[in-house]
Amino acid sequence: MKTKSYGLLEGKKGIIFGPLDERSLGWQIALAAYREGAKFTISNMKAAIRVGQIEELSKQCGDAPLIACDASSSEDIASVFAETKERFGALDFIVHSIGMSPNVRKKRDYTDLHYDWYHKTLDVSAMSLHRIVSGALHADALNDGASIVALTYIGAQRVFSKYSDMADAKALLENITRNYGARLGARGIRINTITQSPTKTTAGSGVEGFDHLYDFAEKTSPLGNATAEDCADLVAVLLSDLTRRITMQNIYNDGGFSSMGISDALLEEFYGNKG
Predict the structure, then answer these.
(1) CB-CB neighbours of 8 under 10 Å
(2) What is the pLDDT of residue 268?
(3) CA pair distance 24, 199, nearest whole angstrom
(4) CA 41/CA 77 separation, integer angstroms
(5) Annotated catalytic residue: which of 6, 34, 118, 153?
(6) Rounded CA gap, 235 and 226, in Å?
(7) pLDDT averaged over every residue in the chain
(8) 102 phi/psi in degrees, rounded to 5
(9) Which domains does the chain have, with CATH numbers?
(10) Is 110 a residue of the active site?
(11) Mean pLDDT of 60-87
């Protein structure tokens, strides 16, 4: 069922980093932002734009401009903000939906990480947020009262063994959010993270044992796992003026998973009716 528009982002302009295909969170966020009235540019690496489906997303979002950018390159980020500012003027929001780990992809155990890959994980998945916010500030590309949202995972607080060095990256991402939030508040600029349920995205499905993790979370969460569309709706609210006093928060969009110990459904599965 198509969600109706509430006009939450009418007149807002921004940039969304990271959409790849219709399974990605960034893709659904772009659709929700467009539905709510926003105008924005879409950015990903050149290779991702070439092999992904991003041109189709652009069409679905009113021919939103596509700008290639390696988020680990300060030069690329400076170019993105220069071009976006030329098109739209100063921006009202930024979405960071970027993450990758060569160690996870290659199934390297946490006790045996390839350190060059480890650095790449931290650089792309976390330090990129610092580069993006810093790049926006240096370009004077953010309006007062703007909103920045980045996507994270509960692996930053709890151990999920196969999540490996991505957990470290997400912990760093969340700390960058807090540090920048304290410094941006004087201008009314907010920055928050969303901890999303395990979601069947291209990246998420690449984690070893993902299907078991997904089922575990589904059976633990009172409301069940949040979908990519659920995440997109929450992002739209955080980008809107309705959340102008919310900053430096990590918001759990996980159906209640983060507050649970164990559920009746899991007890039933583990022990049956033995009581």
Answers:
(1) 21
(2) 87
(3) 9
(4) 13
(5) 153
(6) 13
(7) 94
(8) -60, -35
(9) 13-271 (3.40.50.720)
(10) no
(11) 96
The two beta strands, 91-96 and 66-68, are: unpaired
The pLDDT tens digits of the residues spanning 12-44 come to 999 999 999 999 999 999 999 999 999 999 999
Q: Give CA–CA dist 88/13, Å, rounded.
A: 7
Q: Which of 118, 163, 214, 252 is catalytic?
A: 163
Cα dist. 93→196, 205, 217, 262 in Å?
A: 20, 28, 31, 37
Q: How far apart are CA 252 and CA 58, in angstroms?
A: 29
Hey, what are 28's tokens? 């659904």
Q: Considering only CA atoms, which of 113, 111, 114, 197 is closest in space to residue 151?
A: 197
Active site residue 252: no
What is the pTM (predicted TM-score) of this model? 0.94
Identify the band that residue 275 occupies on the pLDDT scale cut at 50, 70 and 90.
low
> For the chain, what is the HEC assignment?
CCCCCCCCCCCCEEEEECCCCCCCHHHHHHHHHHHCCCEEEEEECHHHHHHCCHHHHHHHCCCCCEEECCCCCHHHHHHHHHHHHHHHCCEEEEEECCCCCHHHHCCCCHHHCCHHHHHHHHHHHHHHHHHHHHHHHHCCCEEEEEEEEEEECHHHCCCCHHHCHHHHHHHHHHHHHHHHHHHHHHHCCEEEEEEECCCCCCCHHHCCCHHHHHHHHHHHCCCCCCCHHHHHHHHHHHHCHHHCCCCCCEEEECCCHHHCCCCHHHHHHHHCCCC
**Tokens at 89, concatenated:** 């003027």
Q: Which amino acid is at 85?
A: K
Residue 250: which region, alpha, beta or left (left: phi > 0; alpha: psi -120 to 50)?
beta
Paired with 147 in beta bridges are 93, 190
